[in-house]
Amino acid sequence: MAGWPILSLTTFLPLLGAAFIFLLRGDAETVARNSRNVALWTSTITLVLSLFIWFSFDPTNPGFQLVEKHEWIPDYNINYYVGIDGISFWFVLLSTYLTVICVIASWDGIKFRVRECMIAFLVLETAMIGTFCALDFFVFYMFFEGSLIPMFMIVGIWGGPRRIYATFKFFLYSLFGSVLTLVGILTMYFITGTADIPTIMGFDFPREVEMWLWLSVAAAFAIKVPIWPFHTWLPDTHVEAPTIGSVDLAGVLLKIGCYGLIRFILPIMPEATEFFAPLMFAFCLIGVVYCSLICLVQDDMKRMIAYSSIPHMAIAVIGIFCVTQESIQGAIMVMLSHGFVSGALFLCVGVVYERTHTRDMRYLGGVVHRMPVFAFVLMVLTLSALALPGTGGFVGEFMILFGAFKVNTWVATIANLGTILCAAYMLTLYRRVMYGELERDDIKSLVDLDARELVMFVPMVLIVLWMGIYPSSFLDVTRASSASLVKNYHAALDKAHGSKSAAVE
Amino acid sequence: MSALFPLFGAAIPEIILAIAGVGLILLGVFREQDGARLVSHLTVVVLVLVGILVVGEGHDRQMVFNGMFQTDAFAVFVKVLVIVGAALSIMLSLGYLQIEKMDRFEFPILILFATLGMMMMISANDLISLFVGMELQGLSLYVLAAFHRENARSSEAGLKYFVLGALSTGLMLYGISLVYGFAGTTNFDNLKTMVVPADFHKIGILIGLVFVLAGAAFKVAAVPFHMWTPDVYEGAPTPVTSFFAGAAKISAIGVLVRILCEPFLQFTSDWTQIVIAMSLGSVVIGSFAAIRQTNIKRLLAYSSIAHTGYGMIGLAAGNAQGARGMLIYLAIYVVMNAGAFAVVLGMRRQGMLVENVSDLAGFAKSHPLLAAAMALFMLSMAGIPPSPGFFGKLYVFMAAVEVRLYVVVVPALLASVVGAYYYLNIIKVMYFDKPDPNQQALDVMENDSIAWVLVCSTLFVLLFNFFPAALVSKADVAARALFMG
After folding, report:
1. Of A346, B116, B298, B425, whose Cβ has the fewest other Cβ atoms within 10 Å?
2. Which of A142, A163, A209 to mutate to test the interface with B (most CBs of B within 10 A)?
3. CB of B379 within 8 Å of any CB in chain A?
4. pLDDT value for A306
5. Model confidence over A450-465: pLDDT tens digits?
6. Cβ neighbours of residue A300 closer than 8 Å, sequence gap 6 or more
7. Could you give the CA distance from residue A23 to residue A60 in angstroms, rounded to a whole number?
8. pLDDT value at position A289?
9. Helix (H) or strand (E) holding B62
């Protein structure tokens, strides 16, 4: 496969599939069936292509690989420039994998306007992959913003009763952060004369400028993660979104926020990062405790899982701002594990909701008697969410806390509280749904997972266990890149401090 | 061509257009039946031919009529946009005029003469010739706004536009006389190179400049001279509205740029303040006022005010990069605008034109292709990447950031989030809302010329990102011509 533009192929193949679905003709039922099939094939081929990336990827190389660069708008020195390194690598695979899962899950989940739904998901896949691969700021921004449009449609068309409010809130909130980021991007572009991300990473901005840049660029990512107090769009959007919309939202879109922090904030603005890190720690710790407490009192399963994303991502952000080798790798691990686990948990909610038409835990109970296989799946996912050793969540959170402890003991201690609270609410969820008396008739008539659902869940469970039992296959890929990131960060800080102390003398 | 007629040289396209206009009037008078249709088609042909001639003029600066009239790369670029906008509007009008029983041959001819006036004012190299062009354009537009004679709203629109337009013309003329009085010349080149002593002469010229700016701002519908826009856009026949929002607006912005960047270049630090205030005001008022609109034409009117504001941010930067960004913005805008109006014109219910946003409910279900095209135009107008509308905004903001105009950039970008709301609202109505069961489903007018406009503009919006360099480099040449020397 050497010499093939494999990243571009992976990025744009779903778009091609979407165009193909758009052109399908026939009566409603044929179109629905064909668009499902086309979407499934397209996303599967994309997944296979992304596995080829894995084979051609050299984990010992800390730089960008599989790079493609073409002139796009020469007058402005803007290029179509893509490539991946150890930090972005896993997220490309996460996106391609979750899209396949979403398409499979849509078989029963989406009952009307199937064609539009499949188009939206494939376009979203292109936007997600493109965001992780982009190495030019304008290309990045295009994909980053472009992902809003399909998500807007997904929540707005197939969502719950308050979908209009939720989707507008999601879109406008995200757009608000993005336009602030655009100001920062334009400023960097003019100071450095290029939008080339690797070049800008090596550029040393004046401290004053860096502070403003940090505020503007972090705006979009803080909203996307979301970091408390910018999180209010998340529960609304998740609750109203259809199951598969939540899977992509929690699985990949939130990761774009953290990815942006690692990719742009740390290497480009080290001094400002050091300055603002305590603020971020404070926000994240409040988020961890406050949102965990909110989770404890939820009756709606989906709302609880939606809120539980905030503490998990907050712990990842703490890992990012500790900037040690372990904590960065741990953050990537938490993001990955959360991507799989929360995606799968939303699918579980979907499984329950499709059968009982309720997500309210007060009406559920005793499901384990009718759905033992499902109970096992949910058990593995619950344990992984609360970071039990042997699951991916543990590896990541342990590494983050390990790194955080070296930087600030208090941060590590309070963040640990999040893990305990997480165990509390996740186990409560499990108990309320699975155990208890079998009372309601509709729960008595439940049937266990069918073949299609097993196809979705079995790989999920295996991946989660794989991440916990043999994390090296995941950590090896991220090691070189995060090591060089941390090294450059501290070198830049030392240089800045050195020049300041020299000025004082 | 100019070798054959050296006396007229660069003005040949305009002269041909004028002669063709007179010829078409005669043709229209003598053809009793189907005159409107034939004249419309011929007008489009004439406009295309003139457009080719304009492009053939090349990028070098040429002067005729003792320095009253010039062409350069900038004039060519803006004229091509104006001609495209005019031709699209005529094509949009074809089916509409027939259905509304107003298919009179004067309609395309009035558009033709308005276009002629626009081309003249873009090419003007003297305040007097500028004024003559502006009047020719203005008078044609007044009549066009009131073209639907039986309709009270259309007559009201025409009258309102005329009264306010006459006032603004008066202001402009007063400004021109002040400039002449204090500078002793109305020629652009002389004004540009003149040495102005920093005493009352400068103040006098500045006051004149403010009056000229006010007149021009009325034509572009920039805040605070925007009040007429919603009423006139709503009342005028829809193809005319598309002409107002497209060609007329672009020519007026072209003139504004020409005036500020050529004769009054040495006052840049003075006029940028005015332009900053106007652009920011337009963006904010255009974005906020559109939220409550239920009529789609009124909504597009406010949206066009906001777009004027975004374009003028490029001008506020006061350099060639800004002018380039603005030209790209205008070029993208003219196509999006034509596309959006094509959809509005195509929708009918029981033979009546549909003008309310809420009537679009369920449009995505009944007409998926048209709804997808409309959604595309709305996203592009909102400036959501990767649509071309985003790149238009990007280039403008780039220029503004380059000169550290954060005071403008940040509020304007935040206003664009507000603007995104009402564009998304149209998508929401089309895709998310259920149609009113008591009402008949929407029809779509079967019309080839509207379909053509729609297909072309959709293709432009879809494919722009693959070949942005072509437009960018053309705009670059045009903008440089403006700031030469």
Report:
1. B425
2. A142
3. yes
4. 93
5. 899 999 999 999 999 9
6. A239, A359, A360, A361
7. 44
8. 93
9. strand B62-64
- Catalogue the long-range contacts made by A443-446 (C-beta closer than 8 Å, 24 or more residues apart): A443/A356, A443/A364, A443/A365, A443/A366, A443/A367, A443/A370, A444/A370, A445/A370, A446/A355, A446/A356, A446/A367, A446/A370, A446/A371
CB of B413 within 8 Å of any CB in chain A?
A: yes
Q: What is the mean pLDDT of chain A?
A: 91
Q: What is the pLDDT of residue A502?
A: 66
pLDDT of residue B180: 92
Q: How confident is the model at residue B450 (pLDDT cuts 50, 70, 90)?
A: confident
Q: Which residues of B touch A175 (CB under 8 A)?
A: 384, 417, 420
Question: CA of B321 to nearest chain A CA: how many angstroms apart?
Answer: 10
- CA distance linking residue A328 with residue A319, whole number of Å: 6
* DSSP reduced 3-state for A230: coil
Region for residue B34 given its phi and psi (left: phi exceeds 0; alpha: psi -120 to 50; beta: otherwise): left
**Nearest Cα to B463, choosing from B330, B314, B335?**
B335
Helix (H, G, I), strand (E, B) or coil at A70: strand
**Residue pair A402/A318 in contact by the 8 Å Cβ criterion:** no
Tell if the CB–CB gap between B417 and A179 is shorter than 8 Å.
yes
Query: Are the C-beta atoms of B198 and B301 separated by less than 8 Å?
Result: no
- Residues of chain B contacting A168 with CB distance shorter than 8 Å: 421, 424, 428
Structural contact between residues B412 and B397, judged by C-beta atoms closer than 8 angstroms:
yes
The string of DSSP codes covering A75-103 is GGTEEEEEEE-HHHHHHHHHHHHHHHHHH
Is-contact A292 A418, C-beta < 8 A?
Answer: yes
> Measured on CA atoms in the order B332, B337, B338, B344, is the torsion positive or negative?
positive
pLDDT of residue B80: 94
User: From the CA atom positions of chain B, what is the Rg in Å?
Assistant: 21
Distances (CA, A) of A204 to A191, A200, A247, A493: 10, 8, 39, 11
> Is residue A503's pLDDT more than 80?
no
And the tokens for B151? 């309709």
pLDDT band for A74, please (50, 70, 90 cuts).
confident
Q: What is the pTM for the complete model shown? A: 0.93
| A165 and chain B in contact, CB less than 8 A | no
Instruction: Tell me what percent of the residues of chain B surpass a pLDDT of 70.
Output: 98
Is the predicted pLDDT of residue B10 greater than 90, yes or no?
A: no
How far away is chain B from the Cα of A174, in angstroms, using its nearest Cα?
Answer: 10
Can you tell me the mean pLDDT for B233-237?
91
HEC secondary structure over B339-406: HHHHHHHHEEECCEECCEHHHHCCHHHHCHHHHHHHHHHHHHHHCCCCCHHHHHHHHHHHHHHHCCCH
For chain A, give percent helix, strand, coil, nearest 5: 80, 5, 15
pLDDT value of residue B94? 85
Extract the tokens encoding B91: 């094509």
Amino acid present at A307: Y
| H-assigned helices in A435-504 | 441-444, 451-469, 472-504
Half-sphere exposure of B2 (CA within 13 A, CB side): 16
Q: Which region holds residue B351: left if phi is over 0, alpha if psi is between -120 and 50, else beta?
A: left
